[in-house]
């Protein structure tokens, strides 16, 4: 059907899915959001007449093909719990099988810097060796390899877009979420240190327009590309700016690697962060010149504006919570 969605977002309920959906809607493109829970999808996308809501169970191949039926392009955003990273290549293989069965022509994997391991150069270009020394990095590498190897087979073209750490309004799965929440509440921000090393963060609302553009750029497929942030900044600088905007003095509680190990004895999530701690001491800073050569200049929100928008969203959330409790 002419008015049917041709692009589907698998694992759409997260921050990246919302960003991409917003960009697709802004250009008038119909899209399909695919996730495990219909109510969660309705809460995020039910207001948009361009959105089609479909559920799937990645563990059941028939539901993958059914969710992909009629799509030309799939964008893969599926996350797994941090302590279950072994699922990444397994789910990717099942999804690839389902996409082939449905006749999908293109796949975009939104990837991470994990497959690189420790950076040998700064910035890191797409040609940098992929030699992860962590379990999570090896699982992400296996996932990427499945996608890269699938290109050119069974009518499928693939693209991997790697992102650095991200932040943005309402983005809870971010190292920086506690900073904005703490500044908004006037409470102590829980952070993972060191917080004085220059780091790179991509503003999540900037991701959607890039993915939308790549989805209709045929020459992008068969490649791996980077999307970098707006330069580097330290976590401390972000915290100081956020608290200053909130007209409060910074209150920071910083946990280093040793503290993470101790806290991890009772908190499984923090325990899982220990092996990836190198990214805070030896950050991977991406070179995205290949991307800009391909699609032209990319709009990147400044840290100043991104911090202000993220804090404003946190303040709205606090006001909403207070009103709900009243």
TrEMBL record:
Domain NAD-dependent epimerase/dehydratase: 10-217
Name of one Pfam family that matches: Epimerase
Top-level division of the source organism's lineage: Bacteria
InterPro entries attached to this UniProt entry: Epimerase_deHydtase, NAD(P)-bd_dom_sf
N-terminal signal peptide: none
Name of the protein described by the UniProt record: NAD-dependent epimerase/dehydratase family protein
Protein species of origin: Paraburkholderia azotifigens
Taxonomy of the source species: Bacteria, Pseudomonadati, Pseudomonadota, Betaproteobacteria, Burkholderiales
């Amino acid at each position: 059907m002419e008015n049917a969605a041709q692009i589907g977002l698998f694992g759409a309920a997260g921050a990246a899915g919302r960003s991409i959906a917003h960009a697709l809607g802004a250009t008038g493109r119909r899209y399909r959001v695919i996730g495990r829970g219909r109510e969660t999808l309705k809460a995020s996308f039910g207001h948009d007449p361009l959105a089609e809501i479909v559920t799937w169970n990645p563990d059941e191949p028939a539901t993958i093909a059914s969710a992909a039926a009629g799509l030309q392009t799939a964008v893969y955003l599926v996350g797994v719990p941090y302590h279950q990273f072994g699922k990444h290549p397994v789910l990717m293989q099942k999804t690839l099988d389902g996409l082939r069965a449905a006749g999908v022509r293109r796949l975009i994997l939104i990837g991470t810097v994990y497959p690189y391991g420790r950076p040998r150069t700064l910035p890191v270009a797409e040609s940098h060796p992929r030699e992860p020394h962590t379990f999570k990095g090896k699982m992400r590498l296996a996932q990427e390899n499945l996608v890269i190897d699938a290109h050119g087979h069974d009518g499928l073209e693939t693209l991997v877009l790697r992102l650095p750490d991200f932040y943005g309004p309402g983005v809870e799965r971010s190292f920086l979420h506690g900073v904005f929440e703490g500044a908004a509440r006037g409470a102590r921000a829980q952070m993972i240190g060191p917080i004085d090393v220059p780091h790179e963060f991509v503003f999540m609302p900037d991701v959607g327009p890039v993915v939308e553009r790549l989805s209709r750029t045929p020459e992008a497929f068969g490649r791996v590309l980077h999307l970098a942030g707006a330069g580097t900044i330290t976590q401390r600088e972000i915290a100081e700016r956020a608290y200053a905007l909130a007209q409060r003095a910074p209150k920071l509680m910083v946990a280093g690697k040793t503290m993470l190990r101790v806290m991890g004895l009772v908190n499984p999530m923090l325990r899982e962060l220990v092996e990836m701690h190198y990214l805070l001491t030896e950050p991977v800073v991406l070179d995205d010149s290949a991307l800009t050569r391909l699609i032209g200049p990319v709009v990147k929100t400044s840290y100043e504006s991104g911090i202000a928008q993220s804090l404003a969203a946190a303040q709205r959330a606090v006001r909403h919570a207070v009103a709900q409790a009243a």
